[in-house]
Amino acid sequence: MMFEIGMINQPGVWVTLAVGAVLALLLGALRSRRESVASGRILAATVLLPLGVVFFSHLMYCLMDAEYIIESYSFGYLFAFWKQGYMFYGGILGAAVILLLAGGKQRMKLLECYDVRRCFYGHLALMLAAARIAEGFAGQGYGEYWFEEKMFFCRFPFMTYDGYYEGWAWALFMAEALVAVILCIVLLARKKTWDGDGALLLLGLYASAQIVLESLRRDEFLRWGFVRIEEVFSGVAILFVLICYCCKAGRGKTASKISCFVLFLLMAVLCLLLEFATEGRIPFLLFLEVYQCYLVMAAACCVIAGCVLWMRRICNTSNNLEKNV
């Protein structure tokens, strides 16, 4: 099988990652003809972008449990980006670092080049989808096991097979890739935009989905004790996005802004409680079955995504931009 839990298909991993890199290179070539930024800087940023994303995503993954990584492997493993272990938010950090370094004195024009035309963050979402599929080739990105093989969903792309336990598990990497593709369509559908809007919209909406998808994972996910690191980073990322939109909006509409932040915090707390409830740690939520907890969490994440769009609309209204996604 192409996708099998615990089995690493190295050719599949690197081919899918290469597809995302090629998309970025083609985009850079187009930008070098259309924008006033020096073509060399655009191409340098575009060529280095996939490498920066992969390098920092691996580095951040290792730093989250550096003591274990160094003891089990070596200090050099932190920088061996071709090895297994990647973190989504490390990739986001890598993209930001590469764009800032490659831009030099023209960094603002470079960021404008990548954002105002709308296409870059749409293609970045496709790169993200490719990375999630690569995760499946690496034998990761799966959820709960389901041993009833007569079930219709016990087949790819809904589930992935585990040859060791001879059972099927939910293929969460496909759900994460699907979210990224949907966001690509959303980003490309924007009619009016401003510098930074694409990055904030992609980060805010994808992080909203990651909260519940990360909670469903049963693979080698990052954790501090029982705390799932990606979920914590997702909450922080969404708060950062809301603050950026709020600052961009300027003064006015105070009631709407406060309501948006309060609603987000309430949903974040609800997701936290539900995370504990799935492990039976919250007595007053024991009336909920585990699957019901996840359904409620998914609904809360939809509300959080709505908060991102709400704050963005406030921002666009305040700056006399068209109200659309």
Concise summary:
The protein is mainly α and 325 residues long.
Descriptive notes:
The protein is mainly α. Helices cover 66% and strands 6% of the residues. It has helices spanning 10-34, 39-63, 66-72, 88-103, 107-116, 119-137, 172-188, 197-216, 229-249, 254-277, 290-318, and strands at 142-146, 159-162, 167-171, 223-224, 227-228. The strands form two sheets. A three-stranded antiparallel sheet has the order 1-3-2. Strands 4-5 form a two-stranded antiparallel sheet. Strand 2 and strand 3 (167-171) form a beta hairpin. The radius of gyration is 20 Å and the shape is globular. The relative contact order is 0.10. The model has no long low-confidence stretch (mean pLDDT 81).
Keywords for this structure?
11 helices, two-stranded antiparallel sheet, 5 strands, 325 residues, mainly alpha, 3-stranded antiparallel beta sheet
Distance between the termini: 39 Å
Low confidence ranges: none
Describe the global form.
globular
Give the integer mean of the pLDDT values. Answer: 81
**DSSP strand (E) fraction?**
5-15%
Helix content: 55-70%
- The number of strands is 5
**What is the number of helices?**
11
Pairing-aware structural class of the strands and helices?
A: mainly alpha
* Biggest pleated sheet: 3 strands, antiparallel
One letter per element, helices H and strands E, the order comes to HHHHHHEEEHHEEHHH
Radius of gyration: 20 Å
Strand order of the largest sheet: 1-3-2
